[in-house]
């Protein structure tokens, strides 16, 4: 079996704990806090930027122009049958399919997860207010990408190449909505790494865990903040630099409810175009190591399979 140079170092993890166990057992990460000044990422603490790169997660103050009302509504209802009235534009997406294999509704066999993924070119199919929020989340993520590439020392002239155009507002911009079915007695989601560059996450409840500094810790939402994490593409690019970016393993616990509303979350995934390439950066500049398409197959297959062991 051919070994890929982009495979991450295996991490042996325990089985995903329950929601009750997390509340009693797992400490919260002291995530760095940040905000945007114009398009520039500013951290509250002097060591905040470097801590964010090391942890792979940080908090971003929600920009004043963002309104989550319609995104939350979509996340709570996209999986329901089409409903008349004000919920009509937010329901009926369980039957929405695309031919490309990575958009549309997904019922995850081994997880409580059910998802709806939709790329930017198809946002005309979702409520316009949700599409607007998607564009805002993508803009925030690309601003973060610019700041990180600058911080680790990647020359501006190489950004478009190494990100397959994402740095210029192109690439792969996908909204992902998650509903965690408490009536399904399995894990919330598998431990995994995101495959792309930057993930902008809207989450309102505890339950997200990450493997940081050799231990599982809780990534807890904070009111008025988005959770940001880095994917494997940026980890591969920066792994040989003096300052590198971690794409830490994370997953969601089994949601347990007693008549209460199920957990939801949604994210903006920012990734390279599938026609592009994955690069590592060295003294002589960017070195191509793999096609994005090959990399995506490798990473995605490990995200949704039934293997709870090392990844």
Automatic annotation (TrEMBL):
InterPro entries for the chain: IPNS-like_FE2OG_OXY, IPNS-like_sf, Oxoglu/Fe-dep_dioxygenase_dom
Phylogenetic classification of the source organism: Bacteria, Pseudomonadati, Pseudomonadota, Gammaproteobacteria, Enterobacterales
Native source species: Photorhabdus cinerea
Lineage top rank: taxon: Bacteria
Family, per entry: Belongs to the iron/ascorbate-dependent oxidoreductase family.
Span of domain Fe2OG dioxygenase: 170-272
Sample GO molecular function, one term: metal ion binding
One Pfam family of this chain: 2OG-FeII_Oxy
Keywords: Iron, Metal-binding, Oxidoreductase
Record-given protein name: Fe2OG dioxygenase domain-containing protein
């Amino acid at each position: 079996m051919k070994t890929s140079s982009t495979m991450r170092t295996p991490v042996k993890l325990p089985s995903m704990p329950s929601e009750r166990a997390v509340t009693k057992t797992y400490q919260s990460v002291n995530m760095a806090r940040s905000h945007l000044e114009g398009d520039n990422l500013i951290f509250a603490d002097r060591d905040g930027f470097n801590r964010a790169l090391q942890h792979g997660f940080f908090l971003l103050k929600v920009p004043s122009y963002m309104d989550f009302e319609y995104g939350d509504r979509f996340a709570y209802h996209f999986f329901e049958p089409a409903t008349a009235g004000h919920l009509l534009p937010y329901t009926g997406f369980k039957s929405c399919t695309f031919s490309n294999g990575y958009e549309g509704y997904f019922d995850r066999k081994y997880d409580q997860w059910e998802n709806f993924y939709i790329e930017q070119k198809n946002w005309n199919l979702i409520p316009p207010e949700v599409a607007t929020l998607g564009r805002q989340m993508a803009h925030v993520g690309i601003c973060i990408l610019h700041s990180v590439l600058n911080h680790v020392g990647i020359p501006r002239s190489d950004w478009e190449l190494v990100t397959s155009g994402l740095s210029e507002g192109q690439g792969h911009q996908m909204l992902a909505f998650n509903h965690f079915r408490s009536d399904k007695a399995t894990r919330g989601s598998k431990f995994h790494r995101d495959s792309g560059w930057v993930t902008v996450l809207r989450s309102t409840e505890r339950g997200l865990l990450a493997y940081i500094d050799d231990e599982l810790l809780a990534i807890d939402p904070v009111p008025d903040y988005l959770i940001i994490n880095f994917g494997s593409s940026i980890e591969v690019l920066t792994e040989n630099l003096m300052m590198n970016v971690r794409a830490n393993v994370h997953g969601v616990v089994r949601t347990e409810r007693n008549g209460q509303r199920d957990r939801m979350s949604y994210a903006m995934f920012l990734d390279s175009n599938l026609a592009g390439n994955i690069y590592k950066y060295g003294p002589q500049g960017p070195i191509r190591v793999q096609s994005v398409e090959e990399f995506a197959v490798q990473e995605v297959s490990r995200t949704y399979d039934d293997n709870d062991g090392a990844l």
